[in-house]
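User: Quick sanity check before I run a bigger batch. Here is a single chain. Can you write out its predicted 3D structure?
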Amino acid sequence: MAKWNIDSLSDMTWTPDGGLLVVTSQSGIFFFDPLSRELIRELYPQATPLVEIDFSPTSAWLISASREGTEENGFFSRLELWQGPGWKPRGLIYDVPLAISDISFSPDGTALTAAFSSPIAERNELDFWDVTSWLITETLQTGPLLNIKISPDGELLASSPDQYALRVMDLGGKSWIYNLRTSFTGAVNSFAFSPDGLFLASGHYDGMIRIWDLRTGLLQLEFQSQEVIQSLVFSPDGRLLASGGSYESNLVRVWDPSTGLLLRTLEGHTSSVTHLLFSPENQFLVSGSYDGILRIWGIRP
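Assistant: Done. Predicted structure follows.
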């Protein structure tokens, strides 16, 4: 196991080639070599504090999203662009008096989706961008969207609208096809698509992990952890599901998503585990926490 110190972790992902781990604090973007454990590069956006980043799968673009303000005094959000492969800064492309909650490139890299969320109905929307022109092609008024994820085949978008449900959109028709309800003790804290796009896993406040079949919209499996689930991720081969626990345990658990069997428990964090990533080659698992530590765990065959 290796570890790095990162204060105020807000997001983490891989470069499109899978070679570098990229993490963000509220003020910077940091590229690490996971094998040598060296810091390779730092980027400092004009707009902070950062909430999300994403790479286009084609390595053409890196986009960062920042948000500042409060509901009482108003929010302001900005999108900033970096051009690959050298990640040259191209400046701000969008600033708007809304609260951005998430961004995601389509799997083919031709489009970007940005979600904005607010208790005020008219301030909730999904913006769809064309990445050739960097113009918004469509805006949908929605309910609150706390998080969004796009399925690996690019056909579905999953969102957490109010923490007590998951909604799934058919991106072809821009219509909601499933509303996956949970109990009032089981607020949705995290969710993840399986690599084949057939299932959606959700992690809940009451410690429940649920697996939904996206061919039918029905619950396939549910199993219980011993703590609030803060983060959730499938391994690239779909054979493992990792969950990050809240302050009760601060544990990372690794499960068999087909049976709900607990395979491993990883100890070391001293605060809630908010971010999880498997390496693209399935060699290790990266965890990030409110304790400011990034940990890399070896994954046994």
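The domain at 1-145 is CATH 2.130.10.10 (Methylamine Dehydrogenase; Chain H).

User: Great, the batch can go ahead then.
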